[in-house]
Specification:
This protein is of the alpha+beta class and 131 residues long. The strands form 2 sheets. The protein has a 6-stranded antiparallel β-sheet. Strands 3-4 form a two-stranded antiparallel sheet. The longest helix is centred in the middle third of the chain and has 17 residues. The model has no long low-confidence stretch (mean pLDDT 96).
Length: 131
């Protein structure tokens, strides 16, 4: 099965709440997009930091899944977020996850989140443990 199709078919419940749509997928990276809806915002009407982190966490986990040996799982064990700029309600944000390390026991990913216009919103580095 195509990797992108696999990720979109999994239907992760929280990713569905976020409105996340995977757009590209391979062992070396995952891309997705999400529209900033009012229910994902803080005040003023900009994307909440927790939604930014959840978006990035989902991409890092998805990228790890595409690299797992048969029968293995994953969980996030560490995550660091640098918030750089706002994403106002109505904006489409794009996430791109690339590997820092893909090992047997852990994988480390960096996710850059930008607006569709290319403005940087956040950079997230996370570590996934292979279970």
């Amino acid at each position: 099965m195509d990797r992108l199709q696999l990720l979109n078919d999994i239907k992760l419940p929280f990713a569905e709440v976020l409105g996340l749509k995977f757009t590209e997928a391979s062992e070396t990276g995952v891309k997705a997009e999400m529209v900033v809806r009012p229910e994902l915002c803080t005040r003023p009407a900009i994307l909440h930091g927790g939604a930014v982190m959840a978006f990035a966490d989902t991409l890092g986990a998805a990228a790890t899944v595409l690299n797992l040996p048969e029968g293995k799982g994953t969980t996030t064990i560490e995550s660091k977020t640098n918030f750089v700029g706002p994403a106002p309600v109505g904006t489409t944000v794009m996430g791109e996850t690339t590997p820092v390390h893909r090992g047997r026991r852990t994988m480390v990913w960096t996710t850059r989140i930008t607006t569709a216009e290319g403005k940087l919103v956040a950079v997230v580095t996370q570590t996934q443990m292979v279970l």
